[in-house]
Amino acid sequence: MSSNIQISAAQLSRLVGLPDAPVLVDVRTAEDFAADPRLLPAAQRRSHEDVAGWANVFAGHKLVICCQRGQKLSEGVAAWLRHEGIAAETLTGGFEAWREAGLPLVDVGRLPARDGAGRTVWVTRARPKVDRIACPWLIRRFVDPAAVFLFVTPSEVAAVAERFGATPFDIDGVFWSHRGERCSFDTMIAEFGLSTPALDRLAAIVRAADTARLDDVPQAAGFLAASLGLSRMFRDDLAQLEAGMLLYDAFYRWCRD
């Protein structure tokens, strides 16, 4: 029976990808995780055994806790978090319910190594326009909300990647880049296992805008105009990224709804 401290897979799926989405925490046992090493979008792994030690990390946030079947582990962790004054719900039916509903799961084998603070680090060319804003948006909303993005001189991307342990994207000759007529955003959706009707619809807009095939999708011309306008408004690439997040949030909601 559901309650105000539980959330169903269908309800949670409507929140995933939004800027105010709850923090998703996977507390499956090591054995259960090894049997299916995928995560709900943007979820992070924590152990139920030391919840008292990590609870305060999430002070002020709303959490959804997921274990294998939504029973003792998630119930206990969520109850402990609520004891600490942290809003926490459990995913009804747990990981199995989400998987059985056919909802997207991130292939953790595709995730780059994390830095000492537990963040993925990415590097690309400076002065982003479309694809180099689209990819960070996708990563922050669906893969790693704490991801770090480095924007550098194009000729230095490979060297910065090597020296700083960063993963290069949207440049020639790397894994996370264009493939044929598909852009880097398409690559990330496919490789992370994030294909949904909403993201596929957004990818069509991004692809048309990024490759100047504006007749392919009605929204592409306006999307490109807004993207170029943001590029002209901001000299700082990170400030432009923050502003661009709102643009992609808006288009994602339109694509979804």
How is this fold's topology laid out?
Blueprint: E1 6-7, H1 9-13, E2 23-26, H2 30-35, E3 38-39, E4 44-45, H3 51-54, E5 62-66, H4 72-83, E6 87-91, H5 94-100, E7 106-107, E8 121-125, H6 131-142, E9 148-152, H7 157-164, E10 167-168, H8 184-192, H9 197-210, H10 220-233, H11 237-256
Parallel strand pairs: 1-6, 2-4, 2-5, 5-6, 8-9, 8-10
Antiparallel strand pairs: 3-7
Helix pairs in contact: 6-8, 6-11, 9-10, 9-11, 10-11
Low-confidence stretches: none
Order of helices and strands: EHEHEEHEHEHEEHEHEHHHH
Which percent range fits the helix content?
Answer: 40-55%
What's the number of helices?
A: 11
If you compute it from the alpha carbons, what radius of gyration comes out, rounded to the nearest whole angstrom?
19 Å
Quick tags:
10 strands; three-stranded parallel beta sheet; alpha/beta; five-stranded parallel beta sheet; 257 residues
Question: Explain this structure to me?
Answer:
The structure is a single chain. The protein has 257 residues and is α/β, with parallel strands linked by helices. It has eleven helices and ten strands. Strands 1-6-5-2-4 form a five-stranded parallel β-sheet. The model has no long low-confidence stretch (mean pLDDT 96).
Summarize this, please?
With 257 residues, the chain is α/β, with parallel strands linked by helices. It is 43% helix and 13% strand.
